[in-house]
Structures are given as C-alpha cells and as structure tokens.
C-alpha cells in the first residue's frame, strides 16, 4: 500500500506508516501505549525530528506525539528508524492505539483500579476488531486526579467503587451513562460493543463513523449485546489539571504544559535529561497536550519547575494560556485559513483575567476543530476571507450566527470580566 494514500481525506488519522500532508510537509504521528516513553526514546525522537523533519513536534489531545515537516525524501529513513525502534503502529486501517489513559495511570493514589492493566486487556481483547475507523478510541478513567471526561472518546470507562466499571458515551449535555460491568468482565463487554458496532457498519444498518455518532436505539442495542448491568451514574467531577504538581504515594509528578501542545526538539531533549536527573527516566505524554514527569522527589520539584519555566514550559495551573486551545494554523496546516496560534496568543496576552475566571477559548484555523473536539465558551473558526466564525458555548462543528475579524473580536473581548459577558458581547454583528 502506498503510505501516502488518502492523505488529504477529511477525518484522516495519520500514523508512522501512513503520514499526512500538511502545510509544512508530512506529519508523522507516534502512538506509544499509555503515552509512555523513556529518556532514550525521547532523545531518539528528538534527533529524528531534527534530522528528518523541521524540528517541531506536537503533543496531541490523545497523548500522541507528532513529528512535523518531514519531506518525501526523508520519510523512508524516518519510517525505517521508528519501525526498528518499535515506535511504529501495527499494520492496518483501524485505530493505531485503541485506549487513552491519564498520564498518572498506575501511579495515581486516587484511582480505583489498575487502569494500565485494564487498558492492556482491552487492547488485547478488542484491538484487532476490523471495521473501526482509525480515529476510534476509548478513554480508560480510573476515577483519579485527572478525569478524562473532556477527551471526546467514543466510549469512556470509569472505575467506580466495588470493582465495577461504568460505561459512558459523549452527549450534548456531558456524559450519557449506558451501563456498568464488573471490572473482570469489562474487556469482554468492550469487545461485544465494538464488534457489534462494526457489524452494524458492515451490514449497512448505520453509516456512523464513530460510536458516539450512533443513533440512540442502536446504542441501547449494543449495551444489551454486552449484557451491561444498569448504569451507575457518577458525578461530573472537575476538569483535569493542565500544569502543576500532583502528589503521589512515592514523590510527586510534575505536569509541564506547552502552548497549544507545540514542542521543539531542544525542549524534548531537555525533558529527557530532567526525567533522568530529577526522576525515574520516564516521560508520559498527556491528553492535556503536555508532558508529565513522575517520581520526582519533593525537594527536587522547585529546581525542576525553575528549569522548565526558563525552557518555555508552562508550570503554573492558573496560566491564562491553559484556557486556550489552538491548532497549528497557517502556514503549518494546509486546511487552515488563519494563523490561529498567533491570534490565540494575542487573546491570551490581553484577556488573561477573563481566562483565569474560567472562560475557555478555542481558535481553529478551519471547521475540523482538531485542537479541541469538544465545546468551549468561545470558539473561533477560520474562514477563507481571514475572518472568524464566532460560536458561543459550542464546538467548531456548530453553526455560527456572526463572523468577525480578529481585531473586531479583540475589541469585544477586552472589556469583558466573566463568562456571562460573552453572550451579550457577541450576540450580533455590528450594525
């Protein structure tokens, strides 16, 4: 198969074996299980990105790592290197990695089950099901310090008390709880749901690409097929921390954020070095588009934070940039109509008080909304004329009633002090 086939198709999910063409060259995405790398692997990836790409990397909202700016000439050597190191995904058209976890998996004292073991069991039981799209994924949530409610998974499993797992799907008002299962039977229940969904697609009963898009009656049919018990509805919980220090039973974990997930090779090498000097040599990519370093002795945390700040990482949980999501934008993405990161930083730099009050902003260069599949208090979607469609309390896929230039948007944002001020400020276009 031609590794570059279909690379311009909407909804494409790139990997190592099948990269995607973007505005700055080919994008190669690595999908390490549980987002885990060791320091040696991180250095190898950084050197590969420098030698075969343009030196820029992204951490995605699923804890994957993207090498940008790869050329047709350098790609074969990059593929051979990553394949040799065991960093290329298996052959096939299905999900490159079926499960997404908290970066604290296996370490979080608040988790109610071993999420690493559960994820591995699910990958083994259901990872080979044919007929699932590459974008399909399951969030495994141990109920601990970093909930996964916002990651946009097709299916979310949340550990509850008494060795039970509750199954949820995204809904317009949050989570739709469809049933529960004993922990020991959860992998088989997942297999039943996913194989049933693949059957519905194969037989033409549904054309839904994602489980989350399935008609409600078919959802209940799949829940019955999996013999799920009645749902245990769990509280919504709080949003996951995006930067800062988390306490563990053995030391601390330091979560380093990056503006919009963008990283350079120097930063990745520095992270590898710090993981060995301050911790266990392990690096965990986070669905918050950051990097978590576990097993840091409490007395070493201040020095690590200081070095990370000087290297351009975000370490403070109240940094205004953490409330802003943005895609690579023009010219880095061929689909983008606007320079989304620059506009997002402009807003974050001028409207920090509004963002620190809890407002969330998503600046997307096009309607695909890759940087943030969920809703934000204010979503801006790039247009061909360089302006933005403005969506209040919605996603990049939702309809907009007005479109404005970035200057007009800034004029309306600057006086605002709270989320409640957004609706009147953007209620209608200027007369």
UniProtKB/TrEMBL annotation:
GO MF assignments: 4 iron, 4 sulfur cluster binding; heme binding; metal ion binding; precorrin-3B synthase activity
InterPro entries registered for this protein in UniProt: Cbl_synth_CobG-like (IPR012798), NIR_SIR_4Fe-4S (IPR051329), NiRdtase/SiRdtase_haem-b_fer (IPR005117), Nit/Sulf_reduc_fer-like_dom_sf (IPR036136), NO2/SO3_Rdtase_4Fe4S_sf (IPR045854), NO2/SO3_Rdtase_FeS/sirohaem_BS (IPR006066)
Keyword Coiled coil appears in the UniProt entry: no
Enzyme Commission designation: 1.14.13.83
Keyword Iron among record annotations: yes
Stretches of the chain forming a coiled coil according to its record: none
Keywords from the named record: 4Fe-4S, Heme, Iron, Iron-sulfur, Metal-binding, Oxidoreductase
Domain Nitrite/Sulfite reductase ferredoxin-like: 19-83, 253-309
NCBIfam families named in the record: CobG
PANTHER family per record: BLR3264 PROTEIN, FERREDOXIN--NITRITE REDUCTASE, CHLOROPLASTIC
Protein name: Precorrin-3B synthase
């Amino acid at each position: 198969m031609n590794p570059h086939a279909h690379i311009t198709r909407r909804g494409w999910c790139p990997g190592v074996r099948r990269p995607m063409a973007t505005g700055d060259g080919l994008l190669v995405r690595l999908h390490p299980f549980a987002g885990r790398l060791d320091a040696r692997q991180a250095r190898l990836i950084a050197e590969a990105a420098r030698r075969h790409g343009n030196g820029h990397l992204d951490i995605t909202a699923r804890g994957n790592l993207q090498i940008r700016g790869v050329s047709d000439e350098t790609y074969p050597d990059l593929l051979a290197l990553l394949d040799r190191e065991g960093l290329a995904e298996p052959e096939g058209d299905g999900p490159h990695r079926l499960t997404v976890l908290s970066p604290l998996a296996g370490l979080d004292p608040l988790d109610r089950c071993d999420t690493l073991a559960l994820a591995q069991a699910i990958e083994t039981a259901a990872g080979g099901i044919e007929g699932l799209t590459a974008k399909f994924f399951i969030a495994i949530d141990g109920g601990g310090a970093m909930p996964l409610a916002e990651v946009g998974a097709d299916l979310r499993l949340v550990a509850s008390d008494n060795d039970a797992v509750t199954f949820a799907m995204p809904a317009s008002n949050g989570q739709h709880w469809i049933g529960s299962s004993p922990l020991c039977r959860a992998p088989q229940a997942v297999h039943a749901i996913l194989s049933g969904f693949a059957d519905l697609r194969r037989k033409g009963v549904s054309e839904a690409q994602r489980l989350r898009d399935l008609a409600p009656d078919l959802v209940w049919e799949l829940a019955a097929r999996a013999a799920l018990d009645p749902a245990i509805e769990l509280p919504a919980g709080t949003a996951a921390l995006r930067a800062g220090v988390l306490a563990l039973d053995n030391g601390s974990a330091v979560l380093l954020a990056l503006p919009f997930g963008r990283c350079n090779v120097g930063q990745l090498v520095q992270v590898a070095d710090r993981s060995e000097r301050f911790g266990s040599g392990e690096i965990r990519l986070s669905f918050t588009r950051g990097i978590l370093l576990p097993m840091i002795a409490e007395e070493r945390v201040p020095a690590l934070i200081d070095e990370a700040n000087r290297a351009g990482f975000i370490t403070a949980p109240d940094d205004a940039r953490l409330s802003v999501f943005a895609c690579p934008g023009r010219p880095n993405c061929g689909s983008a109509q606007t320079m989304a990161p620059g506009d997002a930083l402009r807003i974050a730099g001028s409207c920090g008080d509004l963002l620190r009050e809890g407002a969330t902003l998503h600046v997307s260069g096009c309607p695909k909304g890759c940087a943030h599949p969920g809703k934000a208090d204010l979503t801006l979607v790039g247009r061909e004329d360089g302006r933005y469609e403005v969506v209040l309390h919605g996603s990049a896929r939702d309809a907009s009633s007005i479109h404005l230039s970035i200057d007009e948007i800034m004029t309306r944002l600057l006086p605002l002090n709270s989320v409640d001020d957004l609706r009147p400020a953007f209620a209608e276009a200027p007369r």
